[in-house]
Amino acid sequence: MKVIGLTGGIGSGKSTVAVIFKSLGIPVFNSDVEAKKLYQKEEVLSAVKSHFGEAVMEKGTLSFKKLAAIIFNDNQELAWINELIHPLVQNVFEEWKTDQRGTFVLKESAILIESGAYLSCDKVITVEASEKLRIARVMKRDKADITQVEARLSKQWTDQKRRKHADYVIDNEHKMIIPQVTQVFKCL
């Protein structure tokens, strides 16, 4: 079974593209959602608490907002969390994939290329939109201020850099995305 990677910068519209593929009957694995679930596992939560201490806790539970404030402002801490979570997400993906049927599955990940996970994909799709539009989308979606969004953006590759590793590019600003997804679907 082929693995098709789906990526794009924060707020680019990856999830919208994934929903369209899902409506076409393609199984979709959302790496970011699965990563968040992993933080509920005792061994992961314990490692995070041991490393960051109470700075990431709120009322006895992990605060993703506090964790994000640390890791998106410190490259070493971001690297530490990625080294902890990415191999675990890959294990969950491999298990999930064995239960899927069809000719291909879609693996959605914000940092598919940056993490090197694209190397295990047969093809890669990247979704693009201008930084200005992406910032506005994320501020609205996450109720975040521009400084928080820009900090997260600064840790991701640019569209131009991602495009060098992509087989297909979906423009989610200037063109209708359904016809673009349909065209890519036909090629896969």
Explain briefly what this protein structure is.
The chain is α/β, with parallel strands linked by helices.
Task: Please characterize this protein's 3D structure.
- A five-stranded parallel sheet has the order 2-5-1-6-7, sandwiched between helices. Strands 3-4 form a two-stranded antiparallel ribbon.
- Helix 6 (131-142) crosses helix 7 (146-154).
- It has a single domain (2-187), classed as Rossmann fold (3-Layer(aba) Sandwich).
- It is of the alpha/beta class and 188 residues long.
- The model has no long low-confidence stretch (mean pLDDT 94).
- Strand 3 (57-58) and strand 4 form a beta hairpin.
- The termini are close together.
- The radius of gyration is 17 Å and the shape is globular.
- Helices cover 52% and strands 15% of the residues.
What order do the helices and strands come in, and which of them pair?
Layout: E1 2-8, H1 14-23, E2 28-30, H2 31-38, H3 42-52, E3 57-58, E4 61-62, H4 64-71, H5 75-98, E5 104-108, E6 123-128, H6 131-142, H7 146-154, H8 159-163, E7 168-171, H9 177-187
Parallel strand pairs: 1-5, 1-6, 2-5, 6-7
Antiparallel strand pairs: 3-4
Helix pairs in contact: 2-5, 6-7
Number of domains: 1
**CATH architecture label name:** 3-Layer(aba) Sandwich
State the strand order across the main sheet: 2-5-1-6-7
Gross morphology is: globular
In terms of DSSP E residues, the strand content is 15-25%
Number of strands: 7
What brief labels describe this structure?
two-stranded antiparallel sheet, 9 helices, alpha/beta, 5-stranded parallel sheet, 188 residues, Rossmann fold, 15% strand
